[in-house]
Amino acid sequence: MTTTVKYIEKEILKPVDLCTGKGKLNRASIGWSRQPLFNCNLSGRWLRKKKWNYWYTTSEECLFSATISNLDFAGMVFVYFLDFKTKKFIEKTVTVPFGKGCKMPDNVGETVVFKSADLNVSLLNEKGGTHIIVSSKDFGGLPLEADIMVTPPEGNETLNVVIPWNDKTFQFTSKQAGLPTSGKLRVGDFKYSFAPETAFSGLDFGRGIWPRNISWNWGTASGMVNGRRIGLNLGARWTDGTGMTENALYVDGRLTKISEDIIYEYDLKNIMDPWKLRTAHSDSVDLVFYPMYERVADTNFVLIKSDMHQMIGHFAGHIKTADGERIDIDKLIGCAEEHNTIW
């Protein structure tokens, strides 16, 4: 059941460690910031730590995503791609025992690299941004080459938040959206070019100690709306009862923190029907999400069970910034998902 509580969330203004020396939550880190000020110094709790860097890029033609993750008992590296016109979708996942080859740094913006015979993913910190380089000789039977540069403008604000279930289970997440992107992508004979005026990227950076069983909704979008650079990050369920949310709007690089729950309304039996997303108490968010493709990820390993429906489509409706500006949205490309996992 989704709560509908308004929250008083502390803004963090200076660097802080996520954990104490014993690996428990540093209570002083509970809050949110406009820049990634958190040092994610996780320790101990073998098999319970969860770390990932998830990137997506969208243009008018396609969506491309690359992730490196380490769940302690396994590393999972996956890449997927959707052509919006043809609906051609390809996904490739490489799983390695005990996270071998998936060394995850403590801080946002640091380099992460994974290399294997089947898939190479590099998320490189350089030139004031992130250089995403991906290659595979067999990506759904096709060669894959991606060379993408994500370059946030100077002073760009992001959402960085600590979610405290308790002193032993907690999560830091940096959610970024609407980041101008350049580069190119080739999937077999399909070739795409990204320009910063029309292509945008988003990041989901996570470091934490999670409950064994958890469910969530997550919505994200990036793009231009009437000359404004817009990003969305709208979560639900997983933060219930913690006093914090992961909800935010990004308008021309300025962050509006939403300190209330997002209500998701959708029908799992008719999941391609429109979804409704709205803020619980205000009119800060009133959106309809129109799916055009369903990505299903059904994992059933010994220690991991995951059921995920990620819908790719577009948002329409309106958002309202912290200073009261209403922005009407007609067609903003993004994703909305339901995810249930045991890990």
Structural class: mainly beta
> How big is the Rg?
19 Å
Order of helices and strands: EEEEEEEEEEEEEEEEEEEEEEEE
Oligomeric description of these chains: single chain
Intertermini distance: 21 Å
Structure characteristics:
about 350 residues; nine-stranded antiparallel β-sheet
Describe this structure in words.
The chain is mainly β. It has one domain. The chain is 0% helix and 59% strand. The chain has no helices and 24 strands. Strands 2, 4, 5, 6, 7, 8, 9, 10, 11, 12, 13, 14 and 15 form a 13-stranded antiparallel β-sheet that branches. It is globular. The model has no long low-confidence stretch (mean pLDDT 96).
Give a concise summary.
This protein has 343 residues and is mainly beta.
Secondary structure topology:
Layout: E1 16-17, E2 32-33, E3 38-39, E4 49-58, E5 62-70, E6 74-83, E7 89-97, E8 112-115, E9 120-126, E10 129-139, E11 142-150, E12 159-164, E13 170-187, E14 190-194, E15 200-209, E16 213-225, E17 228-236, E18 247-251, E19 254-258, E20 262-265, E21 275-279, E22 285-300, E23 305-320, E24 326-342
Parallel strand pairs: 1-3
Antiparallel strand pairs: 2-12, 4-5, 4-15, 5-6, 6-7, 8-9, 9-10, 10-11, 11-13, 12-13, 13-14, 13-15, 16-17, 16-24, 17-18, 18-19, 20-21, 21-22, 22-23, 23-24
